[in-house]
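Two records follow; treat each independently.
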Amino acid sequence: MSRAFINEDDLVESPFVPPRADLPMGETNYVTPEGLEALMKEKEELLARLKELNEGEEHGKLTAVKIIHIELQMLENRILTANVVEHEEQDKSEVRFGSTVTLQIGRGKKTRKLQIVGVDEADLKEGKIAFTSPLGKVMMNKKIGERVVLKLEHGESIFKVLEIE
């Protein structure tokens, strides 16, 4: 067959777009109000990039447009399935989604403050862990003074809940 009869668009491979943060199948997509706000801002930024590409020159545009469309599709799914949990309305006597928890690490004086958030919001550098993470799961429903035991491959880490905000 002559190359004259081949559609050039068919020759472009689908680009690899890394998946969003893992949300296990069947798990509710809980987000904080701030998390939903961040998702909406991300969507605005992607739409702005897409508009810029559509107005720009043609070179290399097709792949970039495809990537943004895929990212928008994944993002839109997260937004549509978001279940916003207002932390202010929750009982602060035990750890819940959205809680900020101060933990004592081991028996020492070292502490760490962590907030339990949605999978798209999680950022350990900012002290935010996903509710689906191993530590997030074992912290749920704990009260001040209770121990949190995180089982690891080579032993376990023990924390004590000092404060719940």
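The next record belongs to a different protein.
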Amino acid sequence: MATEMTNNPKRAVNAPPGEEAFEVLFEEPLPPVNEFKRFMKVFLHRKVVVVGLVFVIIILVAGLFSYQIAPHDPFQINLLNNLQPPSSEFLLGTDDLGRCLLSRIIHGARLALITGVSTVFISSAIGSVLGLVAGFAGKVVEDLIMRLTDAWLSLPPLIIMMFVGVILGRGVVGIVFAVALGMFPGYIRLVYGQVMTVKQNDYIMASLAMGDSKMRIIFRHILPNCITPLIVTMTMSLGGAVMAEAGLSFIGLGLAPPSPAWGTMTNDGYMHLAHLPLLSLAPSAALVLLVFGFNMVGDGIRDALDPKMRGTME
């Protein structure tokens, strides 16, 4: 059989005598896809996500370089300069102890980022491990973990955080674990749901039939399917963790003075709203911008990791 070779994706093939000629279609190989570029294209597609990312970057830079950026010592007390309005020396004024408000907000960004990121990592680690164990350890362990999780979720998170915060103290470590213990049940439900969904797939059944251990199946098949929803949930939980820490600080159970926690600063400036509203509004605005930024970044990551959304951006 003679064949006509061409570079076209469609070429004719000669048929034997007595038969009609036919055409064979050849698909050209698709060019390699740069996953990072495709991710960034979808992630930066919406302007509101870009704005949120800018807010996060600004606050992140302020937290990382707070000692270099802050114009004054945030802990230096000067009662002669207390409750000063905004001026060229103190751009946002001073608090009731004469401390520079702008410097304290900049240093407060470091505390907000440390507590928020640490809380999310600890709560997601605890929740992911318990979710995986519940999905693979058998009916008895599964029922025990999930019923305890349901009971934990029935309690108000603020009550849990307040109770644990009082026991562990008002330091950074105590507040991080207090907020983490109020958030980790959500990760148990998330990972457990992913495990139960993936376990129904045929390739999991085949792996079990071939004698693969549960640990091998978890690390090879289960965890890769949990990474995407876990990353999205962690990113969007950062704002909630920062808000929880600020709420505890606002009611006096968060970071102890003289730590420049935004919640504590908001509470301290509450009594001066009439004549110096910046004392309370400025740290509140910083908190709102950071939470908004985290939520928008999480929303953008969710879109970028969604295969359906990525397909619409091609």
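Discussion point: The radius of gyration is 28 Å. How would you locate this feature using only the token line?
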